[in-house]
Design a protein that fits this description.
transmembrane helix, mainly alpha, 7 helices, LemA protein, MamQ_LemA, de novo design (two linked rop proteins), disordered C terminus
Length: 192
């Protein structure tokens, strides 16, 4: 008799959880994790292009050693910071963003250095790498926007009635957005 009651309770719980949005919350949480992986993927693509860019610049501007080393070190730091999609805390995202901003800053300094070398700017390999980096920066913006969209959809869903009643009890917590760094609304100052 107990076994029969247990089977009925398990079946009822399964029906209740699937009809109350549990499965949808799981799917949406997975979308957030998947989209975060895409964000990391495009940042990795950028990091993978940098050694080729540095080597190309080194051939023309080898005496700009400090700038080249700065780019290599920033790349190393940026690729060492990984964020687990299940732990998208504001601190983890800020640490990831800070490392990526350091790499962006180093790349900007490199591009300013390149301005002094007209032969390098005309080099086809350099122009191809620069175009790939520009395309990757656009991809980064797109993937970050998509991440924030799926995060917003997930956060809104778990906070709506009736999910708000049990989403926290079932382990579904609000996810954090990928936010622009403070002062990103101000244009950068480039000095030659």
């Amino acid at each position: 008799m107990r076994r029969g009651v247990l089977i009925i309770l398990v079946a009822f719980a399964g029906l209740f959880l699937s009809s109350c949005g549990y499965n949808k919350m799981v799917d949406m949480e997975e979308q957030v994790s998947s989209q975060w992986s895409q964000v990391e993927n495009v940042y990795q693509r950028r990091a993978d292009l940098i050694p080729n860019l540095v080597n190309t610049v080194k051939g023309y501007a080898g005496h700009e050693q400090e700038t080249l080393v700065g780019v290599i070190e920033a790349r190393s730091k940026a690729t060492s910071v990984n964020v687990d999609p299940s732990n998208l805390t504001p601190e983890a995202i800020a640490q990831f963003n800070q490392a990526q901003e350091g790499l962006s800053s180093a790349l900007s300094r490199l591009m300013v250095t390149v301005e002094r070398y007209p032969d390098l700017k005309a080099n086809q390999n350099f122009m191809d790498l620069q175009a790939q980096l520009e395309g990757t920066e656009n991809r980064i913006a797109v993937e970050r926007r998509k991440f924030n969209e799926v995060t917003q959809t997930y956060n809104a869903y778990i906070r709506k009635f009736p999910q708000v009643i049990y989403s926290g009890m079932l382990g579904f917590e609000k996810k954090n957005y990928f936010e622009a760094r403070q002062g990103a609304d101000q244009p950068p100052v480039v000095e030659f």
